Every structure is written in structure tokens, then in C-alpha cells.
Amino acid sequence: MTKVLTSRFDLKGEACDIDVYLKTGGYQALAKSLKELKPEQVLDEVKKSALRGRGGAGFPTGMKWSFVPKESKRPKYVVCNADESEPGTGKDRDLMRYDPHQLIEGMVIAAYCLNAKDNYIYIRGEYWYIKEILEKAIAQAYERGYLGKNVLGSGFECNLYVHPGAGAYICGEETALLESLEGKRGHPRLKPPFPAVVGLYGGPTVVNNVETLAAVPWIIINGGEAYKALGTEKSGGTKMFTVSGHVARPGNYEVPMGYPLMKLINEDCGGIPGGRKLKAVIPGGSSVPIITAEESEKVNMDYESVGTVGSMLGSGGVIVMDETTDIFETTRNVTHFYKHESCGWCTPCREGTRWLYKVFERMHRYEGRPGDVELLDDLADKILGKSFCPLGDAAAMPVQSAIKKFREDFDRRIKHTLVQINKAAD
Amino acid sequence: MYTESNEKKLDEIISHYPVKRSAILPALYIAQDEHGHVTDDDIRYLAKRLDMRVNEVEEVVTFYSMYSRKPIGKYKLQVCRTLSCMLQGAEQITEHISHKLGCEIGGTTPDGKFTLQEVECLGYCDLAPCLQVNFDYHEKISTESVDQLIDSLK
Amino acid sequence: METVKITINGQELTAPKGELLIEACEMNGIYLPRFCHFRGLTPQASCRMCVVRVDNPKIPKLQTACTMPVSDGMVVTTDSQEIEEVRSAMIEFLLSNHPVDCPVCDRAGECELQDQTYGFGEDRTRSQYGDKENFLERQISPFIYNDPQRCVVCKRCTRVCEEWMDEFAITTINRGSATLISSFTGWVECSDCGNCVDVCPTGTLLHVPYKYVARPWDLKQTPTVCNFCSDGCSMLAGSRSENLIRTVARDGRGRTAGGINHDFLCALGRYTIDSVHSKERVERPMIRRGEQLIPATWDEALSYVAKRLAEIKAQSGANSIGVISSGRLFNEDQHTLKRFAAEALETKNADFHHDHDEIDLDSFFKYGVPTIATQEHIQNADTILLIGSDPNEENPLTAFSIRWAVRQKAARFFIVNSMPSRLERQASLSLRVREGSESAVIHALLDESKIGDAAEATGTSAEDLRAIRSALVESAKVVVVFGDELQGAALESLSLFESSIATPSSEVAAAARTAHIDALQRQVKSSNSTQKPSINENPYTYIVEHPTLEVATEPVKSETKFSFVPLVRYSNSIGAWQMGMSSAISGGMTAQAMLNASGGGIKALFVAGEDLIAKAEGDVTIVKSQLDKLELLVVQDMFMNDTAKVADVVLPVTSFAESQGTQVNNGSQVQFVRRSIPPVGQARPDWMVVNSIAKMMGVDFGYQGQLKNVFKDISDHVAGYAGLSHNMLANEEPPGSILQGRRPTGSTGPN
Ligand SMILES: Cc1cc2nc3c(=O)[nH]c(=O)nc-3n(C[C@H](O)[C@H](O)[C@H](O)COP(=O)(O)O)c2cc1C
Ligand code: SF4
Ligand code: FES
């Protein structure tokens, strides 16, 4: 299997050193871009690759870049989204700690394509040690002229800084991220205008996920077509999945788009331990709808196939749950997450997640009232599509899908009232 | 609070941005490093230093979960409580630590050494369950491994 | 104003181009529910109440009307099952953690959450007591009380604090469902404007002085005009039986008093109304008997005054009597006092008290009357020059308008001041000059060749002065806001700006420059003389017709490039001057000269509404001994102040709340002040007292005891007032009802 992103993972971090990176083909894509390609040609390759954003939304990267106006009074920026806080996801972590130069190279190419001088990597504060790895790598890149006033003698100036977040999931949302980078509370911004037009400090800004940017060097070296050919017709390339939960070998796996989910679980991850049966899978991080074991059998890991069972590829966080799992409890767990991470800006998300969790709490104590399951479903419905940013949806979808598919786990939490007992007696 | 070497660090950080206030998050880490929490004086100082108003600093500090406005223990034990870690038994480990330290979740030991917290997803889902002690990650923890860890810190 | 056609619920309507849909709907009588939206504040789309469906295949989701500008041909549905469901869901969410303690909440009755629950919510809630989280209520400033559990996090309060006041004294802390309105250290340090409380749609923020004092439905709400500074804000005076309880810019339902300030009010207007019921109020007339002031009946007091004045007039001549008024008295009072001086006392010495910290209006109007800028001129200016004053302290509404222009219209803003001002944060260039050197800057602006001199005199750079000058030259609409630091020739020359900077004709400009140089030279010659320059023939300023009915979204229609805001000290300084209550017009002594002459040329003083001792510049004992030398000192005032204490006769008069009349603000807008409570004690309006004395002295002004006749007299005799009447001025529409047409007609102002 072709490895686009993880080719240096076997070196277990040695590639952090620029010499090792260079020896293994590093910075050739940047050299090629600067020497042989005009910015438009770089953009062309990225468009041809059909690369889609790996941060969750899956927006075509080439198209996003092309929204950036050519002429702009304000400086332009490329910002790497390394906030990685979607529960179930740990891929950007390994991409950065095992191969930081690959990301740096991808960013410089993107910056060259968009003519952005100052660029930032926004990394979640908890990843402090990775921030240090990145900073070391950046310093080396400056030393060797891959960053700085005159990148590889091309006259192109490119600077790169690492900016730490401080514990807020919402700062993964691109506009909240920009607010945070500007030194403010991480509240999302009104869209439009989109960041590609008005972004960081008011300048046109491209925000891309780590994995998205890390794929760029390979695309430049091997061509967009070649990248696209690795995946399916509609979903090009490879994708990294973080598999966690009830599997024998949890970890990060790079597979071609369209890889069967059960193959990933059973072959790559060694299946479910103890011979237990699969109960459910969350295929793309905690925000996406849960799918059942039967649905999992049918699913291939690409945007379209996961869509057919009503879920999403999201951030690529695959959470596997075996038959011993109580889906009520897992849903309570993620609801707590969204209540804790709601930024508090808009009514449905702020009040809705609080209320949802209150109901979950009493059901957890087996004190659910008749109608509480319907209440949960209805509250989620009233958040869905009404919130200011997609976090509200992310809180609602897991609840609705879990109730729909694993209702019995919820019903068990309702306190038996006289009415029900009487009914049973009738 | 802000020593001379910190000042240099701060100057360097400020130079990364066209707007001073962008440096507030990294600057707060430096401040918090000194006492384990962000003090009123830190806020006043940083407001002045970064051309912000004290309320602009306060609203930022209280938004982000990695800053504390109240004193906490020397070692902040943060056990991830979110789904992947929960599936691997994080809850039991937290309880175990709580018993061992004789300290509630969210509380600090009387000697001011440990603060035990449950936090949301730390990005180590495939290495669950996980624990962060200040900035250090510990993966695939078990009751035995945390015992060892805590003993080594005592 | 460019308009577009939009279709709302199948009905074709027009709206101003670029207007927000929520506002456009409201203009057409369709009220969309909202919490976070507030006229003129940055949109935030957080409450999700105002959702509508826009017919556009590209926009599949419901949209927030508070963030959507109208465009031509837009088709919108504001009423459907789907929309109703969202609205009631949002209300249910907001109530899910709300205490619903309306019976003990001060806001009940004027609470937008209450109203919108009735209007758009359901009559049930699925959230029960146990589902709610508690937050403690507490006082957060001398004037503000905060009950966080009632909060809907609309952030109107934090936005007014930031965007109107530039204080940022309150903000939101924490995040998610723990979000609270609070501040660093929890105690709010601010200028106490109280706007945050007024705009709060619920009972989260409350006025401490008003807490548990009254229920809104018990209050009579009278639209009236503040009489502290010269901005002249309208406000709603809430009274119950004989007491003034509170003043607000808007009641909790979004109804404003409909004035030039829309929703804005400052600390003075809001919290100084205590003085109306102060213990220091004089409640009955008093006559001195030896050391003591002894209560008397009105008849006794008035006839005593009339008799003594007649005696002194007979003995020492009419000009031995002086009449001094305060710049706070209404036009009707000033006019009557002036006639009293001229016709009953027959003295030339009549002046409203103005000292060095008052703008010398005689000089300002010397070369004719330039356009006087209203708040709307300021808000629509493309360049603003502030010179020699700090409106942030003295004229908060003007400061607000400046911030508005900078924030909303990207106006260029320059400051030339010897004192620091908080407005410097908004300025594109702020020059801190040597004390008293502001005038030099005016000369440099008028005459480029003077830039070098001015730079030296002020201690600034020629480059900066040149930058300001070229901005003035380039701009289309310039507002100059100035204070008492401008004096003499500089003040006289302001009205030459138009002809020398704005008019391209070189002849006119040259003539203006000559006049300016002439003024400068004269000033040098006469710098030691205290004599006032004589006034030009027509002193009466441009009066804005029906000022309070102007529409601010349309560009202000003034022909001239320059317009001016004289930041005069008092609520009616300009009115006093227009009424001719000025020594420059009567040709007599100034108030200060009268004091200096007391015991000499001046034997008696009649002082209306001014505490001469408190106003003394420098040594108080001098003023005291001057007053001592008088044969007669009559004081008519609200309070037993220091001057009243040494008077021979004290006559109690009404406050602005107890009387009616007109006053003129610094935008030269004539405004009608309504009575909101009956007189305190035996107080009578100033004009009425003076009218009675004149009658006793044998002069009848023909008012027949009616205030409107006084105004009739003014409109007959004072230029610029022709055609105005109380009726007309008072006939602004009263505040409307909440759900439709909530704004007084026409005042679709910026905030
Ligand atoms: C609530 C929320 C959280 C998000 N968190 C992340 C994140 O942690 N990392 C990330 O790369 N994108 C995250 N995103 C997606 C970003 O908004 C954005 O789409 C992405 O950074 C764009 O990069 P891409 O096009 O390369 O995917 C999040 C979005 C939302 C709504
Ligand atoms: S949905 Fe609303 S409250 Fe939730 S994170 Fe987004 S903006 Fe904030
Ligand atoms: S008024 Fe539009 S979202 Fe609040």
C-alpha cells in the first residue's frame, strides 16, 4: 500500500531531524515548486488531486485555495489547524511528532501558492511537547533556508510560527481558531465573509488541517492525478484513521480511501479482543452519527460510502465498541463533552447541551422520567441546524442516532412508574 | 512574576504577530508557570504589556480550560474522561487515584502537591487510557502504572 | 436614500438598501422577536430568535434576519410553522435555566423575555426546578445589580459598554453554560452610565437605586429632556404620585423617549435626579429679618421684592440693578427675565452667568453664523476635529456620537487638546498641546503659512498639523467640536473655515483670510481690555426645524462642508444667548462686572438659578464680600445654596421635572421639556415669579399667566423662532407599543 503521509513513521521520530528528512526525499517538493512551478501550477496540482480537507468537513482543498483573492491590501495567511480535539482522533499528533518537516514543507508550498509571508500552526495547548518538536524543526528549516527571507534563493519570504491553544475544542472550528489566534475568546465568527476572503487580522486566510497540508508534498512530487488514483473515483488519495476503543491494536492507520471498515478493524487492528462481538462504531470522531454492527459490514472508508449509512467520515476517528458497551453511557459521555466545550455564544447549544446533560444525569441514576427519551430526542432536534456553528449539530447528532439505533439502552434508564406497571398488569 | 528571562521570551513571542494581543495565550502560560495559576497581578501586568484592558484578559483566561484563576497543586493529574478512554476504563483509574491520594476529583491534596482533574479528550484516544501530569503525557495507564507514577512524584 | 423592493410573506415592500432585514421588517410593521439584536450594536446572531426563511436555493437553512442585509428582489417568509417552532424552542431553552421569578423581579412588566414568551413561546416548560443551575445574585457596582440566572447572554450590555462608552467595564467570563456577565475582580469600575441596565432585556442587570422601588406599570412615563449638559438628551421620566422615581433612555420594551440620543443616556441624566427631591430644596419663600431668613407667603415676598427694587431704582437709577440668570433656565424664563430687566427695571445689566469655562458665543458668532452640527451631523461626518474640550467627561452623548462615526462610518478623527481624553483611543491622530495653545492651531488651519508658528506654540510637529489641515481640505463633511479653550480671534475665525477652506473661489478665501488677520491684530491690541466686541446684526443662530424628527439614516442635509458643535456648559446656554440674556446684546455689564461693581455702581442683584459663591473662580471670600455690599440680593433658586443663604429674599422655583419650557442644546435644537411631577413645596416656575414681580411694578407682559403665551412672545420677537409653538415641539409621537412600530416615527436613527 502506498504511504503518502506515514512513510517516515517507522523511523519513530528520527525524521524530526532535518538531515534524516532530507535523506528520505524531504524538501524536494518545495524545491520543485519554487524552481519549476508557478503558484497557479501548484494550485492546479492540488485541484487535480481531489484532496479534500481532513479536518472534518471534507471541503475540496484546491477549491478553498482558489477562493483567496489574488490581490489583497491586507497580508494573506496560511494557518494550519493542529487543534486536534475531536474525541477519537490522534492522527495529527503522530503526523507532527514523527514527521514535522513534512507538515512544514506542505505549509511552505501552500504559502508559496497563495503568496503568504507569515504563517501559523495553531496547536492545542496540551500538545506542548509536540509544539517543541515543531519549533526545533522550524529552526532547522530556517537554518537551511527552507524558511526565512529568501526561501531557497527564490526571493520568496516565508515565516512560520507555532501558536499554542489553551484547552477549547471550539478553537478547532476555523473561525474560532482565528479569533483565538488574535488573542480573543474562541467564539466562532459570522460567515460570510469566509476566512479565505476575510480571515486572520482581516486578511485572506486559508485554514487547513495538518493531514491536509502534510499530503501536499507528495502531491507535488507525484502529481495530483497519481494522488487521486490512490483512492476511489470521488474520494481521492489516502486517509489516516485513528482507531480506538475495543480493538486489539488501536493506533493510527493510513489506508487508501474506500478501504472496508471491517477490514480495518479485523485485519489491521487485530479485531475485537476476547472474541466478543461488535456492537457499534463511530466512524469519524464523536460528532458523527453512530452506526450499528450490520451497517459497519457494508461500509467502506470514504466520504460517499459512510454517507450511505447516514454517518460521516469526519475527522477519521474510528471508535469501536463491543457488545458489552452501553450506548446510553457512551452517549452521556460525549454529551458531557459538548456541554463542557460549548462556547456559550448561541442559545440552542449553550442551553441545549446543559439541559441534555441534566436529563442524561438523572437517567444515569436510573431516575429517568417517562418521556425522557423523547425529550432527549426532541431537545437534540431543537439544537440541530439552529445553532450558530456546527458544534451544536455535533452535540445533537450523536444523541439522535444513538436513540434511533440503540433505543433499548435508553429505555432501561427510565424509572418504572405506576402507570407502566399497571399497563404491564393489564 | 515576570522575570527578566521571561520578559525576553515574551518579547520574542510578541514579535511573531502584527498585533500584540495575539501573544496573550502563550504569555499566560509563562505567567501560570510561576505560581501554577494566573493571578490578578499577572492579568494587570499582561493587560499593560499587550495593550489590552484587564477585562479583555480576564475574559480570555476564563474561556480556556488550561488556565486556572485559583491556586492548584504542584502536579496537576489530568485523567482523560472522554469516550475512547472511558471505554478503556479511565473512570476506574480516576477513582483509584482519588482513593490513593485521598482527594476528590477537582480537589487538591492538603499538602498542595497534587490536583486531580478529569479532562476532556487529550488526543491520545488510540493510546487510551491516558493521563497528563502537567505537560507530560502518560499513555495506556493502569492502576499499577499510576501508583508507580504518583509514588515517584511524592 | 436608495431603496430596494423585497417581498415579505407575499407582500411587496420597500426598504433602504443595505438595511438589516430585521430592521427593514420593523420599518414595515413586522416585528421579529430578538434578544441579541439591538439597533446599532455589532450583529452577533446568537439568540437565534429572529430566524426567517429566505427564498434562495443556495441558502437551505433558516437565516438570522439580524445579520442579513436586504437586497433587491429578496423573498422572505417570517411566519411559518417551521419558524414558529424554532422561536418557541429558543424561548424554551432560555427559560430552561431561568428562575421565572417574575413576581419579585423589578423588570417584570417591561421584560422582553416575558413579552416574547407571551408572544412567541409555548405555555408549558419541560424544564423543572431540578434541571436548573444556580448562580448567586449580587451587586457589582455602586449602581448595578446582577442576577446571572436571569441572563439570556445576549451581550447587549457588554456591547454598549464597549461600543458606546468604550469602557469595556463588563464582559462575559467563563464559557458554555457557565458564561456569566462579570468583570475582572467582579467589581465593575466604570463611569456609571447605566446604559447596560437599560438595554438588558431581562432582569439580569438592575439599577440599584431603583431596586424594589416601584413596578413599571405603576409609573407614569413622561418623555422629557435632561437638563444637565448641553447635549440635551431625551429621557423617560418615570414618576409615581408626586415623586420622580427614575429616568431612563428606553423602557425595558425598547421604547425610547424619541430624542436625539435614541437609547443612550449618561450617568448624570440617569442618577442625579435625586436632586429633585433633595433635602436642600427651598420649599417656601423667605425674607431676611436680621440674621435669619424667615418663611413668608408668596404675596409678602413678591411685594417686598417689587417694593425694594422700585425704591433702589428710584434712588440709585435703573442701571444700579443687575439681573443674572443661569444657563440652565428655559427660554421662557430667560426671555421673561430679559423683559423684566429691560421693561420693569429698565436696566441694561442683564446677563446669563458665564465665566472662563464657557464658550464666548458672542465671539463665535461674530462673523456670522456657521452651520451648527447636531448629533446626526457628527454621526455622519467623514472627518471630526475635536479641539479644546473633552466631551467624554462633559458631554457624553457627543463622545458617543464621535465613537459612532469612527466605528460605523470609519470617520477620521483628530484631537487637539491640552488634557488627556479617553477618546484618544478612537483618534487617528491626537495632539497633546501646551495648555492654552489650542487657538494657535485654528490659525494654522486657516492659514497654511502659520503652521510653523503653531507647531512651536503648541509644542507639536508641523507635519502633524499639516496632516490635519489636509484632511480638512480633502473631506466632504467636517464637524469641528470645540470647547472653551478656544478664545478670542481663534473663536471668531471658526466661521471663516467655510469660506477660506471649503470655498474654491480665491476671492472669498482671501477676504476670509483678511478678516482672520484683522481679528488676530485686534486681539493683540485689545488683549488687556475686558470690553466685549460688539455683536453682528443678526445674532440668532440657525435653528434646526423640528430637530427631534430628523431621520438619521439619510445623510444629513447641510449645504456646508463645515459644521460646528460648541460644547457650551449648560443645558440652555445657547438659548439664554438667543433670548438676548447677554450683556453683549443689552450693552450692559457682564455678570462678573456686576459683581465687581457691587456696592459701587450696582446696588441690587436679582439672581435666578445661579450660585454665585459656588461658581467663584479663585477666592470665595471676595464674592462673599461683594455680595455683602449690596443693598438688596434676591435669589430665586431650587436650593438653599451658599448664595441663597446670604440673600435678602429667597424665592423657591421648580426643577426641570416640575415645569415645562423649551431649551436649546449645543446642536441648536429647540426641545420641549415636559412636566413630569407637580411642583415640590410651594415652588413656582422662574418666569412666573418674575412675571408677578413685574406686574407689581406696574409692567404687564401680557402673558395672562400662560406659559404658551411666553413662547408666543418669543416666536414673535426672536428671529429663528418664528412659526414654532409648544404644541408643535411637543407633538413628537409618544412611545409606541411593543409589538409594532415601536419607534417614534422617523427616528430610525443609528442606535
Ligand atoms: C466544532 C468544530 C471543531 C473542529 N475541530 C477541528 C480540529 O480540531 N481540527 C481540524 O483540523 N479541524 C477542525 N474543525 C474543522 C475546521 O473548522 C475546518 O473545517 C478545518 O480546519 C479546515 O481544514 P481542512 O479543509 O483541511 O479540513 C472543526 C470544526 C468544528 C465545527
Ligand atoms: S453552536 Fe453556538 S454556543 Fe455552540 S460552540 Fe457554536 S457558537 Fe458556540
Ligand atoms: S436577534 Fe438575530 S439572532 Fe438574536
* CATH class type of the largest domain in chain A: Alpha Beta
Level-2 CATH architecture of the largest domain in chain A:
3-Layer(aba) Sandwich
CA-based gyration radius of chain B: 17 Å
What is the helix fraction of residues of chain B, given as a range?
A: 40-55%
Instruction: Note the total helix count of chain B.
Output: 7
Q: Give the radius of gyration of chain A.
A: 23 Å
CATH superfamily label of the largest domain in chain A: NADH-ubiquinone oxidoreductase 51kDa subunit
Find the biggest chain interface. Answer: A-B, 56 and 44 residues
Distance between the termini of chain B: 26 Å
Q: Can you give the mean pLDDT of chain B?
A: 96
CATH topology of the largest domain in chain B: Glutaredoxin
Task: Characterize the structure shown.
The complex is a heterotrimer of chains A (426), B (154) and C (751). By secondary structure, chain A is α/β, with parallel strands linked by helices. Chain A contains 20 helices and 11 strands. Helix content of chain A is 45%, strand content 13%. In chain A, β5 and β6 form a beta hairpin. The mean pLDDT of chain A is 96. Chain B is an alpha+beta fold. The longest helix of chain B is centred in the N-terminal third of the chain and has 12 residues, at 24-35. Chain C has 4 domains: 3-79, Roll (Ubiquitin-like (UB roll)); 99-277, 2-Layer Sandwich (Alpha-Beta Plaits), CATH 3.30.70; 286-358 and 571-656 and 683-704, Rossmann fold (3-Layer(aba) Sandwich), CATH 3.40.50.740; 361-566, Dimethylsulfoxide Reductase, domain 2 (3-Layer(aba) Sandwich). In chain C, β14 and β15 (292-295) form a beta hairpin. Chain C is globular, with a radius of gyration of 28 Å. The two termini of chain C are 18 Å apart. Chains in contact: A-B, A-C, B-C. Residues 170, 188, 342-346, 349-350, 387-389, 391-392 of chain A line the site of iron/sulfur cluster.
